[in-house]
Design goal:
The protein is an alpha/beta fold. It has a 4-stranded parallel β-sheet with strand order 2-1-3-4, with helices on both faces. Helix 3 links the parallel strand 3 and strand 4. Helix 1 packs parallel to helix 4 and helix 4 runs antiparallel to helix 5. The longest helix is centred in the first third of the chain and has 14 residues. The protein is globular and about 40 Å long. The termini are far apart. The relative contact order is 0.21. The model has no long low-confidence stretch (mean pLDDT about 95).
Length: about 130
């Protein structure tokens, strides 16, 4: 099962996204890496790395981030880890996390999961 890491500048936001994703797919390993070690806003290389390690398996890890430096920090962590099956996904954070969790629980492999989740960028919320 593909693991999922949610990165945000805010620990509360990351934890809230994890809560929603696990509500939809409770068997999937989804973890938050939000804020700095002291709880303040920011992104932490060490928290991101530890989160990835905590859900890592041969099935891989989908990493989702909110904005700006969380994306840049995630890119640095992934470059240093040098694992081809740990991938930063370009998608909306909340919608992407829920879809990733559902797809993972359904047995979707990492590459296919990412393709489906990245398609969420174009999803409309309002009809009409």
């Amino acid at each position: 099962m593909v693991g999922i890491v949610i990165i945000s500048h805010s620990q509360k936001l990351a934890e809230g996204v994890v809560e929603l994703a696990t509500m939809m797919a409770d068997k999937v390993p989804v973890v938050a890496a939000g804020g700095l070690e002291d709880g303040s806003l920011g992104t932490s290389y060490d928290k991101i790395q530890a989160a990835i390690e905590s859900v890592y398996s041969d099935d891989g890890v989908a990493v989702l981030a909110d904005i700006g430096s969380s994306v840049m920090t995630a890119e640095i962590v992934l470059e240093d880890m040098n694992r081809s099956n740990v991938i930063l996904v370009d998608c909306p954070l909340v919608e992407g996390a829920i879809l990733a969790a559902v797809e993972s629980q359904g047995g979707r492999e990492l590459e296919d999961l990412i393709e489906h989740v990245e398609a969420a960028r174009g999803a409309k919320k309002l009809m009409g």
